[in-house]
Amino acid sequence: MRSRCDRPFRAVVVVAREGSQRIHEARWGAWAAQRGTRHASLPFFNFPDPCAVVIVRPGGRIGTPFEPSSGTGEHSFNARTIHHVLMRGVAAGLIAFAAFALILAKPAPGAEAAFPSLTNGSFESGLAGWTVTGSVDHVCSFWQNASGDCSVDMAATPSQGQLSQVLATTVGNNYTVKFMMAGNPACSSNSAWWLTASWPLNEPSVKTLNVSATGTVAAAYSFDVAGKSDSNMGWTAKTYLFTATSASTALTFQNGTNEVCGATLDKIEVTEAPAGPATLGATTWQGQRPYAPVSTPSFPTHGNIGFYSYIPAPGVPGATDAGWANCGPGNPICPNANTIGLSQLSRLAGYSCLAAADFTFYQAFVSIPFGTTISQFSVNMSGADDGARVAIYNSAHPGGFVFAGSYIYLGGAQSTTDMSSAMVAGEVNRVVITQVDDCYSGNNLNSAQIFLNGTVLPPTPPSDTTPPVITPTVTGTLGDNGWYISNVNVLWTVTDPNSAITSQTGCGPTVVSADTASVTFTCTATSSGGTASQSVTLKRDATAPTATATVSPAPNGAGWNNSDVTVTFTGTDGPSGIASCTAAVVLSAEGAGQLASGTCTDNAGNVSAPATATVNIDKTAPTASAAAAPAPNANGWNNTDVTVTFTGTDGLSGIASCSAAVVLGEGAGQSATGTCSDKAGNVSAPATASNINVDKTAPSVTVTGVTNGAGYIVGGVPAAGCATTDTLSGVATSATVTTAGGPLASVTVTCAGATDKAGNTAAAVTATYRVSYDFCGFKQPILVPVQEFKTGSTIPVKFCVKDANGVAVATATGTVEAYVNGVLQGSEAIRFSDGQYIANVQTKTGKVDWPTGTLEFRVKLNDGSTHSTNTLSTDGVKGVKLK
User: Fold this and answer.
1) Nearest Cα to 537, choosing from 510, 515, 518, 562?
2) Helices assigned H by DSSP within 109-227
3) Is the CATH number 2.60.40.10 carried by domain 774-882?
4) Which CB contacts under 8 angstroms, 24+ apart, belong to 40-49?
5) Architecture in CATH for domain 623-694
6) Please, are residues 300 and 354 in contact by the beta-carbon 8 Å criterion?
7) What does the DSSP 8-state code read for residue 318?
8) Which of 429, 117, 165 is nearest to 271 (CA)?
9) Which of 734, 738, 640 has its CA nearest to residue 693?
10) Given 3.90.1010.10, 2.60.120.260, 3.40.50.720, 1.10.357.10, which CATH number is that of 131-180+202-273?
11) Which residues have CB under 8 Å from 289's CB, separation 6+?
12) Whether this model's pTM surpasses 0.90
């Protein structure tokens, strides 16, 4: 940096853009040094010339140039109209203007770069994103810009200004840089009023700009500013192409020469495309004729454009359509792989001429490397009978593009118009010929050749830069959530239009026939363009879930419930899992055999078979009854145990059980209570059998008056009777007395016929007693002292009998038996005489006397008593002797 000026002073007016609200200061140079009086420096802009100084304020008009004697200068002017360098030589007093622009940019509304990695391509944000080398001017709202408000002059001072920006790139990919170029017109005319011999700018009118990218050769672009002005800059679109050699590429713009007014630059855009073919070439032809002839309206000329509207659906076959066959020997529709060579008899016999069409299709692929200049492209034919049409398919025209000059007519020109504008460099372009036959005669296309830049493009296979295209086709029944619910077939289509498939792995057809949560199939194919892989991940659940119906509360052992029942549905499933089940069903009505049915759905959409619950509900208690058996008699009594049994009735589930029978023994006013339960578990109200009277004991009967086993004297026998009692049910019938025997000897009194109210009959009760005479004893002659009688004699045996009142009984009967030495010898009846009884006993039998010995007399009376003389010992009688 110089501090003093060593040549004539020149003042520089630095123009501020309109609207700027700051004072722009250029550094003072040698003004003060030239005068020898003062030196000053204002640090704003490091202007390269120390012999220049100016202070500029925006707005206003141009004023008188500053005077050296003042030591400073200040000017007000309109920055839109003034863009000059004010020159003033101290010795000569000359004034000159040289162009110089220092524009402070305002913020842009946004970057306009087409390529995501490019920043600030239209310079609306100043020079942000760019690296500046040398000196450039950022010019806004001064001259006509190509885009927006701002642009760049690549030479701000005599320099070779340079802008550079690093882009993120992909190795091998192609990049197109489009930009607008013009030039600063201010320095290219010697006739400008402000130029002088001491400062003759008069720069060349042709401005040059060098553009380069890392690893590539720079390209030079030129622009002639002759006739151009600030209001008519003449911006011209330019294109620069490069292929990236690294992941980051420096894009550089450099002014071509060292000058003050340089090339101008605006609207830079960068687009990216994958790496294309490396060599120029075309494939041989392929052909197919997929459709039968079709009738059309009548057209006036052969090969009329209207015929092409009747190509049958789906139209022109796609590039990879399976119907394409390579042309060459053996192919009847194109026996020549290089020129087609169609020559056949028409298939339109029976059709009206010019009212039918038969279409044949041909295709070839043209590889054009990136950066290739395409100045001409056409398809030249011969013998196109009756017509042909050429369509171009590429990234710019994926649906095909047809020029008005793409049609060939019978008898007309046999070459298409120039189609270069439809072609795209850096990729494989598809060329399709649609040949039409519209009249029955010959069907021909003798020759078709592709011309590029005026030269036949030899049919050579294009370089394959892309791997095969792998397309999976998955067929099956698709359920929910991406699950297949049937067998799944996976087919692969592997194509590569540019080279043969050299290997395939995993590309065969596959059938998924088993359920699986996830299975992945991968097809890998290789061609000369590389290797590609495509994967398909499938999930299959073709098995319906299993649904289960659960009853709550669970039924009892008999299969019944006695309250509301809730039936819930749950399910189990394989790989996809349960998505939902039928909502719970609440059954509240009574009834047998009620059904609740539901299903479950899995996440694949499979629906289970219905799960059914059969529900029996009985909420009503049964009715119980109690029955006593046997039934009581008319008196309300039983004389045996009474069994009370319980039975029930139920209108729905039926009786399950009742209380056990109750056996009641003796007792009055007894009762028994029991219940019944139905099969649903409902219990009845208690049933009671009451007022049950049981008396199993017969009445008590006794004989009154006489005593069993007693003996009574005639006339002194008490009256016999019966007494009947019953302590429970009571006496219904008293016992009656009967007498058997008597009136002497043994008498039996019977009390029988007694019953109680329970029907018990008392057993007969007897009392047996004896009625006898009061035997007064023997009388003489057989009383004491002991008598002795002579055998053979008659002995009078005398005794007396009285009744209970001591009155002699005269009615007794009986006998007197005589025993000698204990042996009965004879007997004699007794007779009553004189108040006593007597029997005269003969002591001989017949004429035979009894033997001698002890004689005993036994009196046997009709009261059954026997009285023996041997009993008289108490009276001193030792017995009667017979001698």
Assistant:
1) 518
2) none
3) yes
4) 40/71, 40/72, 45/14, 45/102, 46/1, 47/12, 48/135, 48/157, 49/10, 49/12
5) Sandwich (2.60)
6) yes
7) P
8) 117
9) 640
10) 2.60.120.260
11) 333, 358, 359, 360, 361
12) no
Q: What whole-number distance in Å separates Cα of residue 396 and Cα of residue 399? A: 9
Does the pLDDT value for residue 89 go beyond 90? no
pLDDT tens profile 780-827:
887 756 567 788 888 899 999 999 999 999 999 999 999 988 899 989
Using CA atoms, how far residue 493 sits from 355, 469, 488, 779, in Å, is: 39, 8, 16, 165
Mean pLDDT (whole number) for 132-156 = 92
The structure tokens listed for 141 are 């709202």
Give the sign of the dihedral formed by CA 318, CA 324, CA 327, CA 333.
negative
Q: Which two tokens stand for residue 514?
A: 């088993």
Whole-number Å distance between alpha carbons of 861 and 776:
13
Which strand ranges, in their side-by-side order, compose the sheet holding 794-802? 774-779, 794-802, 836-842, 831-833
Place of tokens 């060349």: 204
Q: Per the structure block, which two tokens stand in for 527?
A: 């061609």
Sign of CA dihedral 652, 654, 657, 662: positive
The CATH code of domain 469-540 reads: 2.60.40
Token readout for 328 is 């060459």
Rounded to 5 degrees, φ, ψ at 716 are -125, 20
Query: Can you tell me the distance from the alpha carbon of 734 to that of 723, in angstroms, rounded to the nearest whole number?
Result: 7
E strand or H helix at 33 = helix 31-35
Backbone angles phi, psi at 70, to 5 degrees: -80, -20
pLDDT at 73: 30
Split at pLDDT 50, 70, 90, the class of 635 is very high
The CATH topology of domain 281-456 is Jelly Rolls (2.60.120)
What does DSSP assign to residue 298?
-
Q: Cα-flanking dihedrals φ and ψ of residue 283, to 5°?
A: -80, 165
Tell me if the bond preceding 462 is cis, omega within 30° of 0: no
Between strands 836-842 and 794-802, the pairing is antiparallel
What's the rounded Cα separation, in Å, for the pair 843 and 822? Answer: 14
Pairing of strands 642-649, 600-602: unpaired
The answer for residues whose C-beta is within 8 angstroms of residue 578's C-beta and 6 or more apart is 545, 570, 571, 572, 600, 601, 602, 603
Residues recorded for the chain: 883
| Domain residue spans of the chain | 1-97, 131-180+202-273, 281-456, 469-540, 546-617, 623-694, 700-770, 774-882
| φ, ψ at 33 (rounded to 5°) | -65, -40
Identify the residue whose tokens are 């802009």.
45
- C-alpha dist (Å) from residue 744 to 75, 129, 580, 713, 771: 194, 169, 113, 9, 5
Tokens of 468: 């095969």
Which of 786, 781, 784, 880 minimizes the C-alpha distance to 840?
781
Rounded Cα–Cα distance for residues 592 and 773 (Å): 93
CATH topology match: 546-617 vs 623-694: yes
The pair of three-digit structure tokens given for residue 234, joined into one six-digit string? 């003449």
Which of helix, strand or coil describes residue 35?
A: helix
- What is the reported pLDDT for 370? 86
Phi and psi based region of residue 124 (left: phi greater than 0; alpha: psi -120 to 50; beta: remaining): alpha
Cα-flanking dihedrals φ and ψ of residue 460, to 5°? -120, 145
Q: At 496, is the pLDDT very low, low, confident or very high (cuts 50, 70, 90)?
A: confident
Q: Which CATH number applies to 546-617?
A: 2.60.40
Give CA–CA dist 491/508, Å, rounded: 7
Tokens of 202: 């008069």
Task: Output b/e per residue, 10-41; b: 16+ Cβ within 10 A.
Answer: bbbbbbbbeebeeebbbbbbbbbbbeeeebee
Structure tokens at 54: 């100016």
663 burial via Cβ count (<10 Å: 0-12, 13-18, 19+): exposed
Per-residue pLDDT, 326? 93
Q: For residue 348, what are the CA distances in angstroms to 288, 304, 305, 411, 673?
A: 17, 16, 18, 20, 111
Question: Is 744's pLDDT higher than 60?
Answer: yes
